[in-house]
Amino acid sequence: MNVAEAAAVFAAGIAAGGINTVVGSGSLITFPTLLAVGLPPVTANVSNNIGLVPGGLTGAYGYRRELGGQRTRLLVLGTASLLGAVAGALLLLELPAEAFQVIVPALIALALVLVVVQPRLQAWLRRRREGAHRPHGGPWLWAGVLLAGVYGGYFGAAQGIVLIALLGIMLDDDLQRVNAAKIVLASLVNAVATLVFLGMWLVGGTRIDWWAVLLIAAGSTVGGVLGARVGRRVPPVALRAVIVCVGVAAIVHLLV
User: Fold this and answer.
1) Would you say 14 and 219 are in contact if contact means Cβ atoms under 8 Å apart?
2) Rg for the chain, CA atoms, rounded
3) Where does residue 174 fall: left (phi above 0), alpha (psi -120 to 50 degrees), or beta otherwise?
């Protein structure tokens, strides 16, 4: 990797850290960049996942005010993210990269529809669950977060869009607080998948490009801080618009 390529990877890390904090599809910037500089797909995916972990941590710190009072909720839903991340990471190491070529765009499209219709669905669900307060969303949300964790552990691009759609519909809470919870859960998926990848790397089961990891980690750390400063000031309608725009771009990128 020459100087120009290293600069491109670092810049992609900054952009991905910011986008993951505000929306959640930063891998659609870093992953293609790593492919462009010559990394094999699985190596690029694994290195990208590890490098984005610090950006998730700085993003969550930036949203620490919105995370207040959500500890129990995150502990409950975090178990689903943890289990899903392990399953997804193992699938990445066992299945061919083409396995989700059709499923991934369809999943992102469904998530975008859920984001757009979230206010109406949330009102409908609120009427349905009157008298049955479920601060953690109930078993259906847990199952959805589990599946999002599998997806995130396998590839990760746009898992934040899937999560924010699920959380926004199933939780009766402010969208910024939902976004804060999304950052933590997505970061947990990346961190758990990273542990699986590191374990496989130690036994020679996968390859990691540590220069790529370092550059993306440095960039995503900066991007996470910047994304938190911007994202916390975005009104709900504008945040939904950003989510839809990034999601559509993700679908186009994956299909082209």
Assistant:
1) yes
2) 17
3) beta
Report residue 231 as tokens.
């994202």
Q: Given the structure tokens 């370092």, which residue do they identify?
A: 214
Which string of DSSP letters, residue by residue, matches 147-191? HHHHHHHHT-TTHHHHHHHHHHHHS-S-HHHHHHHHHHHHHHHHH
pLDDT of the chain, 256 residues: tens digit per residue:
788 999 999 999 998 888 888 777 788 788 888 888 888 888 888 899 999 999 888 888 888 888 888 888 899 999 999 999 999 989 888 877 676 667 777 777 877 787 777 677 667 656 655 555 566 667 889 999 999 999 888 877 778 878 888 887 788 777 788 888 998 999 999 999 999 999 888 887 788 999 999 999 999 999 988 887 876 676 767 767 777 777 777 777 667 7
Residue 99 DSSP code:
G
Q: H helices of the chain, where?
A: 3-22, 27-36, 41-62, 71-94, 103-116, 118-128, 138-154, 159-170, 175-202, 210-231, 236-255
Q: 39: number of CA atoms within 13 Å, CB side?
A: 25
